[in-house]
Design brief:
homodimer; about 325 residues; 8 strands; alpha/beta
Chain lengths: ~325, ~325
């Protein structure tokens, strides 16, 4: 199959390598010609995917129209902020588009597959999500994730396409729940990182994660998702790993915030986007729209956009009134 | 209030210090006279709680009858294997007994509060559980846990007794669920440690944790617990921290198992018990009794008691057939 991966960051490149192993013909698109040249010249995609060989057989391009012209399937691995702009090239595309981007568009409140319904109206969107650090997948470390589509046949086709002994793909029809879980956990991970940065412990983070899953589920259900999805790989699975792993960019962002750095300075110094930063804004707007209480998201928003002191924010979160659990 | 803590390990000592801060009169009992002498002499309880001062005001004893004679409330912080034997001294005790032990008695399938119903028939048992590393609590790091009793007034009394700004106690009436969550997560943590020891990654562990919570809930519900409890602090909260933290003894046990050490050698070298080891046996027996499928618990049992190769066990867990999630 001819597959085009839109997005040459860590996750796009890692999935392109995975699909190449199953003998698909891969086109990898990135917006930056210098980066594409660099991959071509070195056979690697540093600093995004350190130490991983990128197959010579890839077609590398920075021309999105050319990249998708002959494609039979698209993988969209783009920062959420440019997702709408880049996927405009899919206006006439009628195949499966697998979104692996985790975010919520601020002005519309749409998920990435929601955006696809507008930018690629003939396509069949699938969300692929779960606890999937790109570098671990590239190294062949056992990983499991979920392919979600309202259309079960489409979910099954995607599942079979991506499935490997070390990359297990489950199916879901709750695309809203799968996409929201992935987006919201990045916001929570910033709070978990702040907890680390302030010198709090694993006990504190466990309490935060436990409350976060309730908050994510509550907002998700208000948006039409199924509650059970938040107990799955794209919910609790992705949330826990993002909050506890050293590899998480969003947790790392929060850790620096907790140590007193300014949000703008942290963003400026990062190679890749911490999706939780824009998502905190759009998640808060979504919660307000649906009238849902989201204390953790609100505190992350306050730290990022209202200059709230990190210690005060975490203290406010961890010292709410005594009550029965749940 | 006169409070006696039975058990002078890390958690018993840490809780004794916490209750002492609220000006209660503490008696700390340990079975080993040499250890009690050591605390008396050094003002510390090394190696259990490194660097933490034990108040001089504690009454230290290794005589359990004397320890409980004038007590108004008991905290039982004992290894599960000696819980029945030690709590025999509570035969006539009619107050609240707070069990903080996480385990399941093998022959009876009873939880610790189930044992108390037999050894201390006049007492009012409470289970206190959650993501609570003893050393973090002793250091004043923000922590949250649950006090569970079928009797809500008893749960509330316990909550008020233990609650501090940095130690938040929630209430539950699902004592079965709270106790089972705490016991079972130690078994899962061994599997998570094996994954680490084999050099697998955070993706792998997130997948394991996600499936574990389903397995724990399934067994819990079969035993009469409420499904929601497993989504709380004593379920998912305690499970995640135990699987991801460097501080967990059970995860550490599994890590060494994954590196090829023998179970007996690991146990022999540890200062404190890894409760997941005996619990793997009793949890498996409980699952069989109730006809519940528990693939993770079964594989841990096979590694510990049937000499199954660790890599094979994890591989068998991570490569089950393709299916929809849930």
């Amino acid at each position: 199959m001819r597959i085009t991966v839109l997005g040459s960051g860590a996750w796009g490149t890692s999935l392109a390598c995975l699909l190449h192993q199953a003998r698909h013909a891969i086109t990898l698109w990135g917006h930056d010609p210098a980066q594409m040249d660099n991959i071509r010249r070195t056979g690697r995609n540093e600093p995004f995917l350190p130490g991983i060989a990128v197959p010579k057989e890839f077609t590398l391009t920075h021309d999105s129209a050319a990249a998708v012209a002959r494609a039979e399937l698209i993988v969209a691995a783009l920062p959420s902020q440019v997702f709408r702009k880049v996927t405009a090239c899919l206006r006439d595309f009628a195949g499966i588009v697998v979104s692996v981007t985790k975010g919520i568009e601020h002005d519309s409140g749409l998920s990435m597959c929601g955006i696809l319904a507008e930018t690629a109206p003939r396509a069949r969107p699938v969300a692929l999500s779960g606890p999937t650090f790109a570098l671990e997948v590239a190294r062949g470390i056992p990983t499991a994730c979920v392919a979600a589509s309202r259309n079960e046949a489409v979910a099954r086709e995607t599942q079979e396409l991506f499935h490997r002994p070390m990359f297990r793909v489950y199916r879901s029809q709750d695309i809203e729940g799968v996409e929201l879980g992935g987006a919201l956990k990045n916001v929570i991970a910033i709070a978990a990182g702040v907890s680390d940065g302030l010198g709090f412990g694993d006990n504190s983070k466990a309490a935060l994660v436990t409350r976060a899953i309730v908050e994510m589920r509550r907002l998700g259900v208000a948006c039409g998702a199924q509650a059970e999805t938040f107990a799955g790989l794209s919910g609790i699975g992705d949330l826990t790993v993002t909050c506890f792993s050293k590899l998480s960019r969003n947790r790392g962002f929060g850790e620096r915030l907790g140590r007193g750095e300014k949000p703008a300075d942290i963003s400026a110094s990062m190679v890749q986007v911490a999706e939780g930063v824009p998502t905190a804004r759009s998640a808060r707007a979504l919660a307000r729209k649906h009238g849902v209480e989201t204390p953790i998201i609100d505190e992350v928003h306050a730290m990022l956009y209202e200059e709230k002191n990190a210690r005060q924010a975490l203290q406010d979160l961890l010292t709410r009134e005594l009550k029965a659990e749940g």
